[in-house]
Design brief:
Helix content: 25-40%
Pfam family, one: Amidohydro_1
InterPro entries: Amidohydro-rel, Metal-dep_hydrolase_composite, Metal_Hydrolase, MTA/SAH_deaminase
Keywords: Hydrolase
Family: Belongs to the metallo-dependent hydrolases superfamily. ATZ/TRZ family.
Radius of gyration: 22 Å
Bound molecules: zinc ion
Oligomer: single chain
Organism: Variovorax ginsengisoli
Strand content: 15-25%
Distance between the termini: 33 Å
Number of helices: 15
Number of strands: 17
Length: about 475
């Protein structure tokens, strides 16, 4: 199945209890409507003010209308950090209770056995999970390519799912024998990494407005690649106009490693390598210091905030309020499924709000701010001005949540805040690139059951092989 095969009909979404626009005025429109034509939004306003031309198109059968009474409608959420292959290694007993470096060391043994099919199936399942949680655009950071796996495997999965996708070409080049963390069998040569990066940009990168596929260069972290590869990746990215992404300042050990190996804080190291600017975003930044926050604000360097992962690995509480006050672009990331075993992006917005309050008091983040970070914030972090808001000319990425169930009972006073304060729901409707992907809480043209069955088999195979390598 290729979701891009036929052009979509214009869609008229109307009678939303509340339409959250995230436009410049942050309008919330009661009994709202939004109309899409092709890949873009054509009209936004109150249902009563819908231009007659749309009623005429409906009467001629040239458009489709969906009534959304009882729903909140909003821009599709944007996920800025993930490792989708990890949906095969959730809740692995050996990695349940470790902090970052110990956790990684245990999991590398499994990941070294990934196959191209495992990448394709796990990426599709991870995308299905994200889409059901209201996400319409995601980045994915794939940084190991064992047994013939390629980034193309995850891009083809995104095509099959119809999801807007920023594929980050990760890499690791410093194995254990050279003082790095990963085992030698999962690292690549730096020449091969750069050659493959160029190939991927040539084959897949689309810089145009409403693009469904973009390539990002993303060495895994400062403790798994060389200084040279960080520099050369930045040069290549700027020559070709693609973004840069990596992990930075995740926890105290990460800071200690940076000081010991490079004699600098992670932010100083990033600046030294040319890894700051509007075309760069870093995951985590839990331990970004005041000078680092000022640097990121000054240069427009983005941060992918991953609160569930930070809690699961006991990394700490990222200073999101200080970052935003300094002008740092902040988006949300669910992070890989092995460090956040539940990848629900609206749930992540809820956790972001709650965790900021634990760290910095009850006024540290409002529900609306959490939603803004999850939409506009993520768009800015990915370097896009065509997603994250509902306004004419923006990409047609729209989600709706039904607030009539038990999880939102009694919260009608403020349905928008209820999206974040109450139990994170399943997206009732998801439109991506003007196409209905989820309708009534189910995929419109995809049977998940066989895909889930295969995913279960692959997860079992991967785990058993790593535990009993002599059997494989
Ligand atoms: Zn990560």
């Amino acid at each position: 199945m290729n979701a891009a095969a036929t052009p979509p009909r214009p869609l008229i979404l109307r009678h939303a209890d509340m339409l959250v626009t995230m436009d410049a005025a942050r309008r919330e429109i009661p009994d709202g409507a939004v109309v899409t034509e092709g890949p873009a939004i054509a009209w936004v306003g109150a249902t009563a003010e819908l231009p007659p031309v749309y009623a005429e198109a409906l009467a001629r059968g040239q458009a489709e209308a969906i009534d959304l009474r009882g729903h909140v409608v909003m821009p599709g959420l944007v996920n800025t950090h993930h490792h989708m292959y990890q949906s095969l290694t959730r809740a692995v007993p050996e990695a349940q209770d470790a902090e970052l470096f110990g956790w990684l060391t245990n999991l590398y043994l499994l990941w070294a056995r990934l196959t191209p099919e495992m990448i394709r199936v796990s990426t599709r399942i991870a995308m299905a999970e994200l889409m059901l949680s209201g996400c319409t655009t995601s980045s994915d950071h794939l940084y190991l390519f064992p047994n013939g796996a390629r980034l193309d495997d995850s891009i083809e999965a995104a095509d099959a799912m119809g999801m807007r996708f920023h594929a980050a070409r990760g890499s690791m080049s410093v194995g254990r024998s050279l003082g790095g963390l990963p085992p030698d069998e999962v690292v690549e040569s730096e020449d091969a990494i750069l050659r493959d990066s160029e190939r991927l940009i040539d084959r897949w990168h689309d810089p145009s407005r409403h693009a469904m596929r973009r390539i990002v260069l993303a060495p895994c972290s400062p403790f798994s690649v060389s200084r040279d590869l960080m520099r050369l990746s930045a040069e290549l990215a700027r020559e070709r106009g693609v973004s840069l992404h990596t992990h930075l300042a995740e926890n105290d050990n990460d800071i200690a490693y940076s000081r010991e190996k490079f004699g600098m804080t992670p932010a100083e190291y990033a600046e030294d390598l040319g890894w700051v600017g509007r075309d760069v975003w870093h995951a985590h930044c839990v331990k970004l210091d005041a000078a680092g926050i000022a640097l990121f604000g000054r240069t427009g360097t983005g941060v992918a905030h991953c609160p569930c992962s930070n809690m699961r690995l006991a990394s700490g509480i990222a200073p999101i309020g200080a970052m935003r006050r300094a002008g740092v672009p902040v988006g949300l990331g669910v992070d890989g499924s092995a460090s956040n075993d539940g990848a629900h992006l609206l749930g992540e917005a809820r956790q972001a709000m709650l965790l900021q309050r634990v760290g910095f008091g009850p006024a540290a983040m409002t529900a609306r701010e959490a939603l803004e970070i999850a939409t506009l914030g993520g768009a800015r972090v990915l370097g896009r001005d065509d997603i994250g808001a509902l306004a004419p000319g923006m990409s047609a990425d729209i989600v709706a949540f039904d607030l009539r169930g038990v999880g939102h009972a009694g919260a009608g006073h403020d349905p928008v805040a209820a999206l974040v304060f109450c139990q994170p729901g399943v997206a009732a409707l998801s439109v991506i690139d003007g196409r209905v992907r989820i309708r009534d809480g189910r995929f419109a043209d995809l049977d998940l059951a066989p895909l889930l069955a295969r995913h279960r088999e692959l997860a079992r195979t991967l785990y058993e092989q790593a535990r009993h390598p002599h059997l494989s």
